[in-house]
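Narrative progress, year one. The postdoctoral researcher (J.K.) led the effort to move from monomer predictions toward full complexes, under supervision of the PI. The following entry was the first complex the group processed end to end, covering 256 residues in total.
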Amino acid sequence: MELSTKAKITWCPGCPNATILVAYRNAITELVNEGKLNVENLVSAAGIGCHGKITDYLNTNTFEALHGRVVSSATGIKMANPNLNVVTFTGDGDSLSEGFTHLLHAAERNVGISVFLHNNETFALTTGQATFLSPKGFKGPSTPAGSVDEPMNPLHIMLAMGATFVARTYALNIPGTKNIMKAAMQHKGFAFVEIIQPCITYFDTREHYNSSTEWLPEDFPRTDLSAAINKVREIKEKTTLGIFYQVQKPTFEEKI
Ligand SMILES: Cc1ncc(C[n+]2csc(CCOP(=O)(O)OP(=O)(O)O)c2C)c(N)n1
């Protein structure tokens, strides 16, 4: 199975978007080999931004949406054919700034799609402006004196909206990211995965995250919403990775 295309990769050399691409290709390969996925039924959709180029490098069915509209486009794809496995790639600018309400409503409706958020904490393609996920004090072309806003917490927002699968991973951990992608793609319902993705050109956080992530303990109560909310709100030295929450509920496409 050939999942690569002939398109020349134009991400900055060393960009962790490439490790997300590798993790995703590996996730697809394993799911196909395990008999859990037919690649003909897979749709990979992306928004606009550096992350959005991922569809150029994937030999699956692909769709690139308008900026901020990938989640609503994916909702339409899933409604038209609920048998498809629909995976979306989005940026923190794309879905937490530009297309925020689409994301909220897809989570609330439990649309059966996976949303992989490339969280590089900046609008990278347009050269490093602050998004709503940039840390306070972030300096870029739109905030030369430093952003005054506290960053939003995407996992807390998704839990509050009713997402039925909520997880976080780190782009430079390819096996860990692959495993979480596989779990999300097999989840029936709305699966949201924050992928911490250092932007090596405009906000290089590699040194920090390479030494400051830790996995949730195996026995974490993953069906307990209060436990998940408390965990994702924790402020501590190390950033927690893993699946914080997973429950089964009727999906939007089942209900309609
Ligand atoms: C409606 C609309 N507004 C603005 C833009 C300009 N634009 C293109 S990419 C981009 C930033 C994307 O940032 P993000 O979603 O975080 O993705 P990244 O480049 O960081 O992967 C913007 C603002 C656009 N293409 N369309």
